[in-house]
Amino acid sequence: HDLTLTTNVEDVYPNRTSGYYVMDFTLEEVRALRVRQRVEDTPARSRLMDWMFGVPTLDEIVDLLWEWNEDARPVVGADRREYGGRPGLYAELKRPRWIRNSTGIDTPALLAETLAGNPKAVQMFFNSTHAECSGPTNDEEDGTYRRIPPLVIQCFERDALNQMRETFQSDERFALGDEDEGGGGERRVLLP
Question: N or C: the chain end with fewer CB closer than 10 Å?
Answer without folding.
Answer: C
